[in-house]
Input
Amino acid sequence: MQISTNQSLKPLTTQINENGNLSIGGCDLVELADKYGTPLYVIDEKTLRSICSDYKKAFEKYPKTKMMYASKALCTSAIASILAEEDFGFDTVSGGEIYTVYKAGIDMEKVLFNGNNKSYDELNLALEVGVGRISVDNFFELALLNEIAQSKNKTAEILLRITPGIECHTHEYIQTGHLDSKFGFDLTQIDNAIDLIINEYKNLNLKGLHAHIGSQIFETSIFPDEIEIMAKEIARIEEKFGLHLTEMNIGGGLGVKYTNLDNPPSTYQIGELVINKLNEVVEKYNIEPPTIFLEPGRSIISTSGITLYTVGSTKQVPQGTKYIAIDGGMADNPRPSMYQAKYIAEVANNKENTPKEKITLAGRFCESGDILIKDIELPQLEQGDIICVYNTGAYNYSMASNYNRVQKPAMVLVNDANSEIIINRETLDDLIAHDIIPDRLKK
Ligand SMILES: *Cc1c(COP(=O)(O)O)cnc(C)c1O
Output
């Protein structure tokens, strides 16, 4: 079976160059650290485009497939521009994400707005800029969106976000499809919602159903199980309400390979299972082949991203752990402290002849829990060495904070031995830009 890029531990262009340094996208990582400073997020454009093509090829036998990138994994103007070139639409979850893709010149018809508590202002913005689909999450939002659409004399094209009651074996915080979830309509609430849409909410046009089961999924059965439930609902809704739903959004969630213990399925395996299942349910329930939407986030951007750090202080606990501190940590990558997420790392500069030892890579933030990688074998490190942590493209920058009032890192895009800055490093003035000292406190 063909492999896909989400099954790679490292960006596809990772090499050791003639200086014995690590290079990605043809760029020496030590030179990048020198030029742009650390911490530094680096995105490899080849790897990113390669997974996009893996998804498209995996689904080419089902032409009614729409690829939507779940922007929350990493939403920046340049990344949005690349994905638009790859013919992806965008799943957005806030006014900020909508604004980012809008300003990047994306065709807003290819944008979906999703979320469990969208505000009046966000829904208003979505209708104003012409977002193609809104996935309505709950009864409150049905009423609110209808009211806003009515006030603008518009019809909102919507999906209903449902909770299909499928559990996947991922971390509790990244599971969303089980019954007791905060997201979406319970299956028993769908009829009530459709009644309201048909009889009261004249400015809503229901196009289909939407579900998303969870994230970092390795089990391939999840997607066919989900399609079975949604197809059954679509047939039932047609029968009961005479409402013809043509769209099925099966969410995202495909896993990536953070360490050698992770074995995510390929896009090709998922594609085959999904297409076979769609063909089966179309027959079984006698429904029109639906347009399907896929919303991968992590599997699109994770593998193409790495983070560079510089080694600083060291602490050897007598008879205990050796801590090596780097110049970043939980503010630029909160995943280890939030979900005990595991990463691998290497030294970017040439340490070929240095003996290895087991150490713990500690962050620089004021929390004992700010440990980036516990117990990792690396060549004996010295101050100034450059560390490369792999698979940081997804849910790193997008979850980054200014904890300890530390500036967020810069991000560069690398390709064909070129590097281009796509996010500037924050400055000290950026950090105080929104601060106000009331007049009475001014000196
Ligand atoms: C988070 C999310 C995704 C993307 O999940 P990944 O695990 O990053 O692929 C897709 N759809 C919805 C509705 C989401 O909330």
Notes: The chain has a mean pLDDT of 96. The first helix runs from residue 29 to 36. The longest strand covers residues 305-316. Residues 167 and 178 are 5 Å apart (CA to CA).
